[in-house]
From TrEMBL:
Keywords: Cytoplasm, Endonuclease, Hydrolase, Metal-binding, Nuclease, Ribosome biogenesis, rRNA processing, Zinc. It comes from Brachyspira pilosicoli P43/6/78. This is Endoribonuclease YbeY. The gene is ybeY. Binds 1 zinc ion. The lineage of its organism: Bacteria, Pseudomonadati, Spirochaetota, Spirochaetia, Brachyspirales. One of its GO terms (biological process) is rRNA processing. Pfam families: YbeY.
Amino acid sequence: MKNVNVFNNTDYDINLNIYRYFLSHAVKAANIDGEVNLVFSNDDYIRGLNKQFRNKDKATDVLTFPMGEANEGGDIVISYEWVLDRYSEDKIKMTVIKLIVHSILHLQGIHHNYTEKSLKKNYKRMRELYKKILEHIKGNYNNANKKDIKKDS
């Protein structure tokens, strides 16, 4: 079983079970080996990481740190504060899920630049991976009994 950890390093009340559940299926559907850690942070923390590792002195939505080669796992850091500041309450969960999918692509070794062509290609890959994750969740749901589902949710 692949090791997935989710941490809340903020003062916000975040339902980590939703994101742990989604991330565990995302990691399986994407064939990521090794450990994947998802850390929810604030803007100051992610800004420090962005400055340290990318030489950009500003907060961002998400940073991904692969452990090594493609598909070996790694760390995902999402600024929950950044998401809350930019999205309405009804869009927060879906935004975080999209950021997780985006980061999974990076853990697979797929990177992008910010040209229109690269971004379109990346969005297409994100949609394809998202569909694959949903199929994985649906297959798991259909093959599980109610006891298993309660335990996972």
